[in-house]
Amino acid sequence: MSALRRSPALLMLPACLLVTGCLLLPIAYLIGLSFNPPVVGEVELTTTLTLRNYARLLDWFYASVLLKTLWVSIVTTAISAVLGIALALSLWRTPAQWRGLLVVVVLAPLLVSIVARTFGWMLLLGDAGIINNALIGLGVIREPLHMMFTQGAVIVGLVHVFLPFMVLSVLAAFDRIDPAIPEAADTLGAGPFTIFWQVILPLLNPGVAAGVTIVFSLAMSSYVTPALMGGSSAGVLTTLVYQQLVVTYDWHFGAALVAVLLATTLVILGSVLYANAVRTARWMGRR
Amino acid sequence: MAHVQLSDLSKRYGVFQAVETVSMEVQSGEFLTLLGPSGCGKTTTLRMVAGLVPPTTGTVRIDGRDVTALSAAQRGIGMVFQSLALFPHMTVTENVAFGLKMRRVAPAEIARRVRSLLEIVRLAHLADRYPNQLSGGQQQRVALARALVIEPSILILDEPFGALDRKLREAMQVELRQITRDLHITALFVTHDQEEALMLSDLVAVMNQGRVEQLGTPQEVFRAPRTRFVADFMGVTNFLKGRWSGGVLLAGGGALPGPLQQVGADGSTVELAIRPEEVLLQPGAEATTGALTAAVLQAVYHGTSTSYTLRLPDGQTLMSREPNDGASGYAPLRFSAGDAVTARWRPEAVHLLQS
Ligand SMILES: Nc1ncnc2c1ncn2[C@@H]1O[C@H](COP(=O)(O)OP(=O)(O)OP(=O)(O)O)[C@@H](O)[C@H]1O
Ligand SMILES: [Mg+2]
Where in the numbering of this chain does the ABC transporter domain appear (chain B) (predicted)? Predict the structure, then answer.
């Protein structure tokens, strides 16, 4: 026991082995593959190195898919953050005896299989779906609105799945706020809006940062929802990767796409989190 | 500069009565302390005055005006919280300036007032620090400055010195008293420290289980506790049961020194309290009126004083504490276990308690 206590490294070993074995090695392998010349159907690493796979990415088509992926992820993250903060705020203000129940309701989307959830949205948003039928029935529109298989549908679907992660992260931050802090602002003459914007919101920073990290990386790497709800026009990087690996058997180019996806996610999240940490480092330091 | 009046203030949480019909009045510029054990409703009472929780019944009046329905922001009361509740993401200056910004005071004026207040609490050199870069005592003073900067006529302080060490605590107490006197602020203070309450206050309200047991000056609650709870809280450890008989109070196998004002009929019993330091001992058992004979059970040396536990003829026990000052500090203890002694005290040292 005392030996374990003296060396935390020893305690971290199993986790490190697991992460290395299950996560880092396959990714390293894939990245290695992306620097090999493309041979259809070939998945062995070779020693010939080339940048040809990456050169193909300079094509406007691939750049536009990357931009589209980024756009969808950023909008999904932003909407999740706004809704997540609002939901967490109302959960925070709910009396304790109801809160457990409401948290389960918020988590409900995670309990439903992604395919069932997606088909649910199809029933709602489809050309002959509930919304269109209702609007036509009410005489608001004549032609059905095209909502399913659009970028908007993908964003709606993603927000639906990822919102619970945001809510939980932000709720944790709410619970770390001393309830006397908003009360202090109250006695000093601040109204509810000022208290929210100037006192509560800044203190939610760590929770929102955690939520943004989770939602953005999940959105960038999401596959099922864009594939099922986006249709052909709303292709994102992951659907492209799938095509390369499964349809065209070009693992080398697919690996390059994976590398780009990974790098983009890491660079964007890294710089956003770093800028945020620099901005808040002085007051957030440990007591 | 404000007169505060609480009438029949109660707060109920579900079936639990946290505060029960508290009525009291604080004159403008007075310092009132709520004193009582943990959970007796001190914070809840103050929060109702501040407007942070609505009372179940009763009213709060400030300068005669009923403010019960007003929000905390509208009451303009300065408050120092039990947990301080500083804004962690704001510097000392920003924390203190917050209340003035909410009042839309001109920036130049804000800067001037914040600076002058930081000088009063001696924090001017730390103006740009964040709360997490300050010591407990410094955070304390920021909280005080933040509450004072809005020039409140009423200041509420909820156990503000709980987390401080003794020395800092005493310095802050002196400072606080000076500031409220200088600015003529009506202060409502909470503590469960008896000494702190006596030191600071014009008025002390001793609370127990949601009720005010006694409201009076520090001397009154200390010298003339009216209930057993108050006496106990004020450090009185001697309680005796007595019986009236023709204007004389019989207790402990003898008649107590009088004259005492008889309350109730002959034969009725009464509980009384005596401070141990009021009980004077003489060697030898000598039963006279106004003195009780006793046997020493135990003698305990405390350094500056010595305490004796005595057994009275009727079986009740009594404590006596004598100071070890002057020559007696160097002499051996006057009594030891088994000695027969005579105990007496001044008539006014006896506090008759309400049952
Ligand atoms: N929101 C609440 N819901 C239910 N009960 C409460 C609530 N707030 C306080 N109480 C109860 O009311 C009683 C009085 O609480 P209060 O905070 O006023 O005590 P206190 O005298 O300030 O104690 P302390 O010295 O420990 O701060 C306590 O028994 C507490 O459990
Ligand atoms: Mg309290």
Answer: 4-234
